[in-house]
Write a structure and sequence with these properties.
Na+/H+ antiporter like fold; mainly alpha; 310 residues
């Protein structure tokens, strides 16, 4: 129960960060289009820094085994998400933004500060597993979904700062190399910006949107239900039936980290990529904002269900 309460508090904090961006646009201090600059900073600077910083821990065989378990669980979850999204896209007529919204969660921007606050700094390392899997997929599969089948540029994908950051981070972890203090503090500082900056973008994008109109839209409720309830419940049941909690001494909490990422609201990256690729970023932001509000209740409930069955 304590973990569930802490989760609700931290999610509420992020919601208020988004509210700051919304009010700043309403007050005329910023324009909605100014958010594009912040979006690019988050995607190409803050996100890679989070990835590299998470790998700056001491290498041990136990840590490596735990990371491999987390990676395996994250891969399994994404098979469920992408497979489920594909199955539902036909009968529910999901467009690119909707499909990406049910498949990709706010794993980096939200889960890193949540895990740090709720479980402790030492557990942030395991969030990298989900971030790694999702980063690779969102810059390959996710982009094609949002762009609705446009041709992929694999050279751009491989040279994306986030993909490079994964490679650099793992090399540093495997070799035991720690960055110089000055460089480490710089990277950590940019990484710490990701939560506030991402939520600021979401708030700014909907700054010119009537919130009454937002909550009168029917489709986002369906997307939020799939994203926040249906897929997380399926994940919990699969974790429980698989017996994965016996694979590592800390498996219960490692799998909880993966579940938190799975049950998180829609990835802010969906809004940012929709904005970058000229898709309906405003609609993506509407879905994002609704999912952030609803997850204040749904994420703690998913953790309670997980604790009951694992």
């Amino acid at each position: 129960m304590e973990i569930s309460v802490l989760l609700a508090e931290q999610i509420t904090v992020l919601f208020f960060m988004g509210l700051v961006g919304f009010l700043a646009v309403k007050a005329g201090k910023f324009k909605e289009e100014d958010s594009r600059i912040i979006s690019n900073a988050v995607v190409y600077i803050c996100s890679p820094c989070v990835i590299i910083n998470a790998f700056q821990i001491t290498f041990t065989p136990d840590k490596l085994k735990g990371l491999l378990l987390a990676v395996g669980a994250a891969v399994l979850v994404h098979i469920i998400l992408i497979g489920g999204g594909k199955l539902l896209s036909g009968p529910l007529h999901l467009n690119g933004v909707e499909k990406a919204s049910v498949e990709y969660s706010n794993a980096g921007n939200l889960i890193v500060p949540l895990v740090s606050s709720v479980l402790g700094e030492e557990w942030v390392f395991y969030t990298t597993a989900y971030i790694i899997v999702q980063t690779v997929l969102i810059w390959t599969h996710g982009q094609s979904v949002i762009r609705q089948g446009q041709e992929k540029d694999y050279r751009k994908i491989l040279l994306n700062p986030n993909i490079i950051a994964i490679a650099v981070g793992f090399i540093l972890f495997a070799t035991g190399i720690h960055l110089p203090s000055v460089v480490g503090q710089c990277i950590s500082g940019f990484g710490d910006m990701i939560g506030p900056a991402s939520m600021l973008v979401v708030g700014m994008i909907i700054g010119n949107v009537n919130l009454g109109w937002v909550f009168r839209q029917k489709r986002p409720y369906l997307i939020c239900f799939i994203r926040l309830v249906l897929f997380p419940v399926i994940t919990i049941l699969i974790f429980a039936l698989s017996g994965a909690e016996r694979l590592h001494p800390d498996a219960e909490y490692i799998l909880m980290v993966v579940l938190l990422a799975t049950s998180a609201p829609v990835a802010v990256m969906v809004t940012q990529l929709a904005q970058i690729h000229g898709r309906d970023a405003r609609y993506a932001s509407v879905i994002n904002v609704m999912s952030v509000i609803f997850c204040i209740v749904t994420m703690p409930l998913m953790v309670l269900l997980y604790e009951a069955v694992i």
